[in-house]
Amino acid sequence: MSAPGTAAVEVRDLVKAYGSRRAVDGLSLTVERGAVLALLGPNGAGKTTTIEVCEGFRRADSGSVRVLGLDPITDAAALRPAVGVMLQDGVGGYTGARAIELLRLFASYAAHPHDPETLLASVGLADVAATPVKRLSGGQQQRLSLALALVARPELVFLDEPTAGMDPQARRATWDFIRKLRADGVSVVLTTHFLDEAEQLADTVVVIDAGRVVAAGSPAELTRAGAEGQIRFRATPGLRLVSLIAAMPDGTTALEEESGRYLVSGDVTPQLLATLTAWCAGQGVLAENLAVERRTLEDVFLELTGRDLRT
Ligand SMILES: Nc1ncnc2c1ncn2[C@@H]1O[C@H](COP(=O)(O)OP(=O)(O)O)[C@@H](O)[C@H]1O
Ligand SMILES: [Mg+2]
Fold first, then answer.
1. Looking at the CA of 46, which ligand is closest?
2. Confidence label for 227 from pLDDT (cuts 50, 70 and 90)
3. Which of 36, 86, 237, 246 would bridge with 188, disulfide CB 3.0–4.6 Å?
4. Neighbouring C-beta atoms of residue 62, cutoff 10 Å
5. What is the distance in angstroms between the CA of the first residue and the CA of the last residue of the chain?
6. Whose CA is nearest to atom 16 of ligand 1?
7. Would the pTM count as exceeding 0.70?
8. Quick count: other Cβ atoms within 10 Å of Cβ 170?
9. Which atom belonging to ligand 1 lies closest to the Cα atom of 41?
10. What domains sit in the chain, N to C, each tagged with a CATH number?
11. Could you report the per-residue pLDDT of 94-108, keeping only the tens digit for each?
12. Which residues surround ligand 2, an ion (CB under 5 A)?
């Protein structure tokens, strides 16, 4: 049903406007087969719109979208059994049914579904199987929504803010679940505004803001690019930093920010740390409160957009 040799999702120059406002403004991304891609951005960045176009729920104004090598709208019938969808607002219109009934109903449409009872238990909802969906907590509805997206054994899933409204424990369990999907070779596109979620789960993070890609790469690539890490420490004031800089690799800088407080910036490797502590020892100086500070995706986003991700 899906064209072999193609990416799981291929988006090129996607534009989607609501009225005169472009929610998605020339966005491109590729999700490799079997990979997890996180679309990371603040509220209103265009994450939901982008994946709704991929799901075939919205029509692109321009640009191209291929899902499993097919067109999400004209090939919708062929794609339906292969693609699982978890919507941002959860289970919506089915709230009168019990959790297990709803999952059985979805399973009944599939050719080779997971066993509904087993799947419900694996998302931690065995205890509330007979509870009407509308009586489930927000986090439980999210987990049911995840089970509904997966019951048909899709080869690609779209998860829109899969851990929104979950307590920390349910969040961890959902992360484990997504890791298992990846291990089973399922391709995953998820949206999130949680940095740790993107860093923990994704092979590729696409950071978007105002409908455009501002950065893309693996979490390691994104946090390594541009400005590097830094090391802070305290020691006696007035150290001869010229000789420290000479001892360290090219491109490393060192300065005394305040009396007795030092900042070393550069490519923070274990070797750099070893060089620094050896130099201090050679000066007969004890470096105290030594702290290595690495860039996070938050820093990357802030540098690129001047804004905070969580606003
Ligand atoms: N149905 C809609 N009608 C009009 N504007 C919309 C609609 N859906 C989303 N928007 C606007 O498009 C922009 C992107 O929204 P969305 O794709 O939901 O972003 P995200 O999922 O990243 O929060 C926002 O400014 C939002 O207000
Ligand atoms: Mg959204």
1. 1
2. very low
3. 36
4. 11
5. 41
6. 46
7. yes
8. 18
9. 22
10. 9-223 (3.40.50.300), 228-294 (3.30.70)
11. 678 999 999 999 999
12. 47-48, 88
